[in-house]
Amino acid sequence: MIRPIKFAAAALALALAGPLAAQDGEPQYGGTLNVVIQPEPPGLMLGLIQNGPTQMVGGDIYESLMRYNFDLTPEPQLAESWEISEDGKTYTFKLRPGVTFHDGTPFTSADVEFSMDVFLRETHSRMRTYMEHVESIETPDDLTVVITLKQPFGPFIGIFEAGTVPMIPKHIYEGTDFANNPANNTPIGTGPFKFDEWVKGSYIHFVKNEDYYMDGLPYVDEIYYHVIPDAASRAVAYETGQVDVLPGGSIENFDVPRIREMDNTCITEKGFEYFGPHSWIWVNTDNKPLNDVKLRQAMMHALDRDFARDALWNGLGKVATGPVSSSTKFHAGDTPDIGYDPEKAKALLAESAYNGETIRLLGLPYGETWQRWAEAVKQNLTEIGMTVDIVPSDVAGWNQKVSDRDFDLAFTYLYQYGDPALGVSRSYMGDNADPGSPWNNVANYQNAELDALWDEAALMANPEDRKAAYKTIQDQIVSDVPNLWLLELGFPTIYRCNIKNPVNTAFGVNDGFRYVWIDKE
Amino acid sequence: MVRFILGRLVKAVFILLAILVFNFLLIHAAPGDPAAVMAGEAGAADEKFLADLRTRFGLDQPLYVQLWIYIKGAVQLDLGYSFRQQMPVAELIGDRLPATLLLTGVAFVLSLVLGVIAGVAASARQGSWGDTVISTLALLFYATPLFWVALMAALVFSVWLGWLPGFGYSTIGAGYTGMAHVLDVAKHLVLPASTLGLFFMAIYMRMTRASMLEVSRLDFVKTARAKGLKRGVIQRRHILRNALLPVITLAGLQAGQIFGGAILTETVFAWPGIGRLMFEAINQRDYNVILGVFYISAAMVLLFNLITDVVYVIVDPRIRLTT
User: Averaged in consecutive runs of 10 residues, what is the pLDDT profile of chain B (323 residues)?
Assistant: First the structure.
């Protein structure tokens, strides 16, 4: 009796292991990939625009020095190999020989230097902050790049992905007005696909890069990104077979169970490890009585986040334990408990400075799921005896209100970029708290001791030291509850099972479709 | 007639200008600007990034300067530049307008023709079961929200039956040319055009029916009957011709309204027209595009009203035109 059960378990384990190339048989060439893109990107020039849709589409055209596994270990892409000096300050990259841009010009170390030191420093706000750590970039020969840092910067090895450091062709952009260069409309990179045509409002068409440097790749001939503005219509587009891949967040969550029941349909939550989309509610601690930690703790314990995950997100995602996502480096799993406990919440509320004030809750205008989530939160808070008003807005209005700190509680979610120093610290560091942007320390959390520790932790060369520092930070922040953490969001990528390998790295579909092939049997 | 048309055109220019200024101020009164929206979609931005964008978009200028620049351009038919889409607005609208005109045009004609026919048919046998069926259907179409009809139509005819494409303008990547392309577009047009047309069809039907019944009780119709004219001739030449006037008034008004309906239909059916362009532009605070679309659609409404007035004269020569 034991044997067959064991066998079944092994088969199940294999099936759960996901689409590994080895199991799926020999890759086949040819075919067209039809993918949903939402919303229509403002442009495809990844060095100029960092919007979600641009990053998703741009990853087929633009590449960076490395790619990252699901556990964020770097893998070679345009760099064949790299070395980090003992003191953590010098990074030496050996570039892959024989790489050309789509117009046939060879890709060399000069392009790396130009991209990082000139182009992206000018245009890319995230890159600008990373470049502050860079002392110099040298190019001893065409295939060697030596980057020297001012001091060790732990997260540096994690930034070399296409969305952050896309390789920009120097011969096209040098000495031009980057933002208005006509070449922005016909993007050129080193990636597996070439830009062909963009019919605004309908589709973006890419064709295979026949001269791609990775042997035998890519497999598919062309990609169509379909622009479909309505979420229900995107679901219909998949159901009628007009598109084959629905990247994470393409359809409303309540449509997911219906679509996943369809024949020949696969679904994966993988591919967001690097981004670690982390949702929370900003608490405007400038407003009374929200500056009272007891009140914030009460609200934290009042939120039924399991319900939100199961009912609103269809079981996708994880309940957050604090400021750092579990897929991000240095996540501490043993921070103080912030779980659902309405009784404790009521007790804390009674001790707090709350006197029945009406609290304004600003929802996130990103579709039905978020609207309902705001209603669920209102319900949770009402249950412990608070009065909550939901403030509606559109995307532009939301930006304005959060920038102006014109709210009491506000939904948001942010990416973490794999490392607390890249994607987490910005939301909690005291000197990053000025109004004017919805993505800095909006809660105005002030803790001078932790600020110093954040700074130190980013510049430690030894990962073990960083781990210890981030553990202290996480424990303290979780006790102070400057925000109400909600979920590590799970964005499902839905695709037809005969589309093989759509998600291969911690970047999901943003990584480009070089390994994708279509099983036509 | 020529003097009338010219006079109306001169008036139209001033109305357009007023609409322009009003819209400009209205849009800038809404919270948030395009730079903030673009930064929002990137999920991060520093002050320099936002300031750079605002300088590029000209948003760092005082409002009256921006307005003056816009009006100066608009009178020369220069609608400005969409920084979001990186294209001149005129070009953007030029690309999208044909799709909207096709959709609204077909929906308009379809609803008018079918609505009038159904109305005439219903009024011919007042109280019969045919009348009841038509009237009930019209009431149903009139009362059902457009987006629900659109989604149900897509669900039934596209997902369940697989007869018609559920969205888009043509089959992407099929590379049809000539007649095959026309047929392909026509197939894609069926669901959005009939969805958009249903509501208006119901209105025309009810209007025609009521109007026909009213006219048929008038004395000159009795006279015609007494003369022994054939029923069909009375219906067509005496009743319908007079009953149509209120329908035309309404149709003229609705030719403008149908643009509003197009926003929803185009969004649900991913129809690449200006209604959807405007909807997206509003969400993205793409000021120049919003203003451009308002400008064009206001011009269309004025044009349709003018046409309606001219059509009056053709249908009923007793009507005199005065500006």
Answer: 83 88 87 77 69 81 86 83 84 89 90 91 85 89 84 85 83 80 89 88 90 87 85 83 84 78 85 88 86 86 83 77 61
> pLDDT, tens digit, for every residue of A323-375?
999 999 999 989 999 999 999 999 999 999 999 999 999 999 888 889 999 99
pTM for this predicted structure:
0.86
Euclidean distance between CA atoms B268 and A232, whole angstroms: 8
A199 — contact with chain B (CB < 8 Å)? yes
- With left for phi above 0 and alpha for psi between -120 and 50, is residue A175 left, alpha or beta? left
CA B35 to CA B18: how far, in whole Å?
Answer: 27
Q: Using CA atoms of A288, A294, A295, A299 in order, give the dihedral in degrees to the nearest 10.
A: 150
ipTM, two decimals, is 0.81
Pairing of strands A222-227, A193-199: unpaired
- Of A103, A88, A97, which is closest to residue A142 (Cα–Cα)? A97
Please indicate whether, in this complex, the C-beta atoms of A397 and B30 are within 8 angstroms of each other. yes
Closest CA to B167 of B22, B271, B47, B32: B271
Assign A319 to helix, strand or coil.
strand
Name residue, tokens 């888009």: B168
Give yes or no for A28 touching B (CB within 8 A): no
- Cβ contact, residue pair A43, B45, below 8 Å: no
Q: How far apart are the first and last CA of chain B?
A: 10
| Rg of chain A taking only CA atoms, in angstroms | 24
Size of interface A-B (CB pairs under 8 A): 150
Answer whether B116's CB lies under 8 Å from B136's CB.
Answer: no
